[in-house]
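Researcher: Sequence of DNA 3'-5' helicase follows. Predict its structure.
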Amino acid sequence: MESDSDSDGSHVSATPPREERPSSLLKFKASSSFSTKSSKSKRRPSTPAQPPSKPQSTQEQLPSNPLCLPTLPFQIRRPSDCVPLPSTSQSIEILPAGYFSKSTSFSRIRRPFVNFEDSSGIEPPLDSVSNPGMKNEGKETEVERKSQSATNIAKVGNRHPNLIGANAPAPPVKLRKCGGEGNFVRLNMNGKRRKFLNKGSKKKFTYKGRRGYMRNRGKSKQGGEDQMHSVFESEEDAFVSQMAQKNSRDSRGSKEFDGKVIEEAVSAVRDDPSDDNLVNLLKLVYGYDSFRDGQLEAIKMVLSGKPAMLILPTGAGKSLCYQLPALILPGITLVVSPLVALMIDQQRQLPPMINGGLLCSSQTPEEASETLKRIQEGATKVLFVSPERFLNEEFLSIISTTSTVSLVVVDEAHCISEWSHNFRPSFMRLRASLLHNKLNASSILAMTATATTSTLDAIMSALDIPFTNLIQKTQLRDNMQLSVSLTRNRMKDLLMLFKSPPFVEVQSIIIYCKFQSETDIVSRYLNDNNISAKSYHSGIAAKERSYVQELFSSNKIRVVVATVAFGMGLDKRDVGAVIHYSLPESLEAYVQEIGRSGRDGRLSFCHLFYDDETYVKLRSLMYSDGVDEYAVNKFLSEVFPADRISNGQICSLIKESASRRFDMKEEVILTLFTRLELGDVQYLQLLPQINATCNLNFHKTAPMLLAQKISAVAAILKRSENKQGLYVFDVPSVANDMGVTAFELSNQLHNLKLSGEITYEMKDLAYCYRIVKAPTDFCSLSADLTRWLLEVEKSKVRKLDAMFNAAYFAVNICDKTQGCSGSNHTPCLQRKILDYFAGVDNSYFSKKMDQSSPFLRADIKVFLQSNSQAKFTPRATARIMHGIASPAYPSTTWSTTHFWGRYRHINFQVVMEAAKEELKNFVGKDML
Ligand SMILES: Nc1ncnc2c1ncn2[C@@H]1O[C@H](COP(=O)(O)OP(=O)(O)OP(=O)(O)O)[C@@H](O)[C@H]1O
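Model: Prediction complete. Tokens:
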């Protein structure tokens, strides 16, 4: 995305020197502030060079197309081509109740706020407190820091009360001496409740140290960019493991509580779930005097067995809404969460009398079986489980046969919806039918802080939650002061922000950047200016990340400069400011990220820098997941191979190579699979991913002799190729021949290995699925799937546009009659955010991208001619013109072309259309 050099034959360009910025954007008031730095000046001089090394052409690697794949490198579809297969801006007054508290935080600021629109408005740094963090960084004790922080906050204006609810600040939790074992209500194997034997024995509760959870997988994200999913389970690593171990060591070991008193309070609630009894239990368990807004309502709904949808702001206390019911309900509570780090954090925060467990795919088999054993023993009251694990047949059967599932909690429930900012295909597979039929779950609770109306619809219909059971409070806390400024020089402006009130006085700050490289540069710059900072992103070694988080959590460093990889699951209560160095990708992401601040209820400060160049770059990136019909068709033809389709057949698709062949990210492939499983017609059933290729070696008995005795060996010999003495075969194919599952075949191989007959190695991680009903009309199916994916892509672009619009509005359009002043735009940003969540269209600004360029077609032509050895689709060509890497066209190969990212400022769709026209001409000419 970043690179741009002249190095291939395509240096002969029809284009004059590149425009330095999107020209149409310049027409707008705000756009006068584009970075004046010429990107061209950074480029190497144009030298005739070799064309980029030949890419792995997606088409060349395909098997002959049994369906309607064209011979052209792109597809022009006509219905007759398809051969069916045989039968196989609102006013503040209308805002929701509770939107603004009577004492809104922004109205309490007494000091003038730094104004980035008018530098004359910037207050000089206060001499005495010019940068308290600078003096003793890493040396102050926590007490000193806290007292200084309190003084500083007081200097800024006032100590802000906890505005999240109507509650007074929470008193410290006082836990009494234990009168029983940790989990005073246990399940036996029948799922029935039984009391502890040592009830009332006054035995001191200690939390047993738990084993590490995850193996070190230390992967770094390709491309230097941390998308939200980069920190999800598939990429969890040693950091998570370390945190898990640390948490299990230090979370609960020293706490004590009076189990008998709590047990009595629980019994009282069971008999009569009145407000008084619940508040009494709240006090005993947490030490809090009252529930926050929405908590009591949600808890009562869950206790009454009704499915509930809960929308509360970040840091408002959603976790308590399942923790307390978990204590009261007889069975186990399952919490499905998208992020292992989040699960670990939530497990750590469980009160000591609630025994927690964790299950995720990155655990070792030993760790997972230990957790399962504890569940079977009834020793686990709340189980945090990743969706991948949750959907595993084995898990479902263990849970349903050994436990009573009282409650299933879907945390970050927006991940269920493809219209959310953070869609997870595995979440989409969580459905009410599954939860009820397979688990017999008594109750369901879905929770999120960020859901638009369409996301909400999707969640509630997937989980069968009626709208009467929606508990929705405002999606914003009002103790966050929101400011925004257009930046010409982000680095300089950032430093200025740090030197100005109120930021100069804030002790704990997170800066969010889009790219990993930015985090390193910014943190170095801050350190050079005596502000202690560390960078954090998924490319940093796990140990180092863990260390950075610890330094930050213990206030030994003032600033963490991070990508989105940091923060989810972070409940550091005293983060006083969040600065967005780059525009977030959506208002949902913005709300989540600023929600890391002010969790102690005090006023926090959130500043957003925006500039048009970053917006244009991000807008390009929104097209990196999209696919077109040509690719979907290829995908379908491999998933349902014409020669091998039979219902019930188990098949596999190797992830890495498929991703390159279809030029689709693995996540997109999984999304398609999910859609084929859960759409109107169920075409397939997804099975757990497996290593699909087996390399096997015989040791004791000759293969033919062994085959006479063992049917698995006979089946293997039939299907395998001999490669340098090794028998290489596809595991699902052999399993199909034998009429067993791949899992059963693996068990047989394992036994043969134990007997010394064979050794083997499994590789090539693959999606595994059972064909339920092969589609009869591939063409209309691929058209439907493509339409859906394009809608999802458009929705992502609209989200970014809405984010940009909000920032643009604040800086350029806001008339400051509603309480905004200087760069402080809390009222208007809050309104924009709430409008957005309520479904009010914010996308008026999206049309401002350039719609064309006189040189575009000519440049595409030159590009195609100079890379005639490769085959392109219109989308692949447009991606290169936008500088977007994809599995089949990686940046390592293609960023060397002169055209890489050259037309980023032109609407992607326009570039794609132009590419389509040129490809038609190009291929046509070639054929003459
Ligand atoms: N009734 C209450 N009174 C005082 N403090 C509370 C209350 N309920 C929860 N809290 C505290 O609020 C903090 C945030 O809670 P929690 O982590 O559950 O928030 P959340 O809504 O899940 O936030 P996020 O969406 O950001 O994960 C915790 O430290 C918790 O102890």
